[in-house]
Amino acid sequence: MSTNKVPDRIDLKLVWADTIVPENVEWIWQDVIPQSELGYCYGYSGQGKSPLWTDICARVTAGAAFPGGAENTFGPRSVLMMSREDDWSKVVVPRIIAACGNPALVANVECSVITKDASIEERTTALGRDIGTLITTLKDWQPGKPFPLLILIDPFFDYIGEIKPKEESEVAPLLNDLVRICKRFNITIIILGHFNKRSDAAYHTEKVMGCQAMTRVPRFGFYVLQDKESSDKHVHELIPGRQSLSAWSGLKYSTTAVPLEVTVGKKKVILRSVVSIKWGGAAKGTTEDVGVKSASSEAKSDVEEASVIIHKFLAAGEKSCADCIEQLKLAGFVCSSEDEVAERRFHSRVRKKAGAESYQKSQRQWWWRLVYPEQASFDDYNPALETEEATQ
User: Are 55 and 99 in contact (CB under 8 A)?
Assistant: First the structure.
């Protein structure tokens, strides 16, 4: 017999708006990085995401001004970094020094330490199981070190453990746990990640690896792009992705390898090639530059041309959904991605543009039929407002 007790009742806890005190947004970097929030930064490999954020972390530890001269009002604060992709002694620490940061205020999460009885065991840190350990670390922050202002997780998927990156139901709860940590400890967390290689992404959010929670849960975010105005492949742009808290438009930056002299014991050593960041002027890129088609005329043209074919095909009478899709394939409209959601979305747009509806004629078969003699106006076409419908 089950020993689980059934609760007497379950109620919803209501919080009335007049009991909530309005607050200003507090900024680490004015109008760019808010305090106590979860943010993201995504882009392709080789565009300097890690050096860029190491530069910002160095400014936090030194209490230095931010790019563009924005004042750092916090003074020197600690930074907690979770970074496995780069070697710390050969890459990360030299970058911190090159950016005039204070290595004494940068902590690397090397692993998780398990103490049981008289034994000590080390294991790879995975936030999916070690989120409580992160909370304990912050609660028992090392005396003598200023409390962290920033946590950088680079890349995020290296630290999720057994959680499946594409499973919304698994990723979203972890991200929400990070949001709660931000609020509880008045700390900002930035997660870094890569773009996928989808060639048919309609929106910038579809270029991000993983699930929709990767851009939906964080309150602010950034993308890194190649600067289209420069022929130098080392010139990039940091632009806002989700930036609901300000109207910041982004900055240009470039990566360059510089020599660095450091003191090791009593000897001076020259590190020959340390990647450093040089900040530039205002960025010109937008989120439309992230997705290949991103509501572009090319995407609109594909839908419009395909809808004409379907309208003519259905003019003779209703057809099965499978036959309509086959007709599109014969006309050359083949989805270049194996993403079923993107394919269904395209078919849904084509059907609507053709003035047709889908209905279930039998248990396993869907049909399309015209409901309007004329095609809908293309002026009102807005992919961002489309609902995703199954066209099975």
Answer: yes
Angle (CA) 42 47 51, round 5°: 90
Give the architecture (CATH level 2) of 17-289: 3-Layer(aba) Sandwich (3.40)
Q: Does domain 297-385 have CATH number 3.40.50?
A: no
Residue 239, number of CB atoms within 10 A of its CB: 24
Question: Quick one: tokens of 176?
Answer: 């929400």
User: Taking the domains of the chain in order of start, what are their residue ranges?
Assistant: 17-289, 297-385
Residue 236, helix vs strand vs coil: strand
Say if residues 189 and 182 touch (Cβ distance below 8 Å).
Answer: yes
Q: pLDDT tens digits, residue range 59-86?
A: 999 999 999 889 999 999 999 999 988 8
In whole angstroms, give the CA distance from residue 279 to residue 235. 10
Task: Kindly give the pairing relationship between strand 220-226 and strand 366-370.
Answer: unpaired
Q: What is the pLDDT of residues 266-310, one digit of tens each?
A: 788 788 888 899 999 999 888 888 874 434 444 556 788 888 889
Structure tokens at 73: 């009002």
User: What type of residue sits at position 370?
Assistant: L
**Residue 315 — φ and ψ, nearest 5°?**
-60, -30
Angle subtended at Cα 250 by Cα 249 and Cα 256, rounded to the nearest 5 degrees: 165
The verdict on pTM exceeding 0.70 is: yes
Lowest mean pLDDT among 124-138, 142-156, 370-384: 370-384
Q: Which helix (H) or strand (E) holds 330?
A: helix 321-330
Instruction: Note whether 277 and 251 are within 8 A (CB).
Output: no
What is the rounded CA–CA span in Å between residue 109 and residue 102? 17
Over the Cα atoms of the chain, what is R_g? 26
Give me the helices (H) in 331-374, please. 340-353
- Other CB atoms closer than 10 Å to residue 228's CB: what's the count? 11
d(CA 220, CA 239): 11
Phi-psi region of 192 (alpha: psi -120 to 50; beta: other; left: phi over 0): beta
Q: Comparing C-alpha atoms, which of 207, 212, 194 is closest to residue 288? A: 207
Which tokens hold the place of 6? 């059934």
Q: How far apart are CA 314 and CA 354, in angstroms?
A: 9
